[in-house]
What we know:
The protein has helices at residues 5-25, 31-50, 63-81, 88-107, 122-144, 152-165, 176-195. By secondary structure, it is an all-alpha fold. The chain starts with a helix and ends with a helix.
Amino acid sequence: MHGPASPGWLLVALCAATGAYCLLRMRSTVEEQRRAAGGEALMGFGMAAMAVPTAAFTPPVWAWPAYAAVFGAAALRALWAARTDAHHLHHLVGTSAMVYMAAAMAASPAGAHVHGGSASGVPLLTGVLLLYFTGYVLLSGVRLLPAPGTAGPAGAGAATRAGAGAGPAVAWGDRPELARACRLSMGIGMLAMLLTM
């Protein structure tokens, strides 16, 4: 999981900043935002902790089973929540990927990098997760693009006028494009972590 120090620290910073923003989203007045933000904050901070370069800190032996237990519980919660909201299926895949990476780190020799080269089917699972998160990142990136007709000075002016006179402004923590950018950055982080397996 742990690659070179500089990219590792960039990944730690990205995931920690994403987790911090998700904590702020938990203060939202919108119930759906609060529910989603808690799981995303856990993912962000968990990914940040998992990405710390081994040159700076080598986790104790018990840390990887603890990661697997925490994210296993989060996966069960996401599975339960997916009964009523399909968005939680993505949380289920993400938390399951964290369990998989934690189990792979627990099974690897101390201080060794995880590479999915065994004959036990591990490369297949890594490949499936890489395909899923690549598709997710691409789709999330496309969703962040402005819709046709809203870009440019005329669209920006209309949006400003609508925001100024159409009622109360949306709090910055409740803005859907910021939540999408948060999810996109976590998807990119997950891709980076899976690539080192």
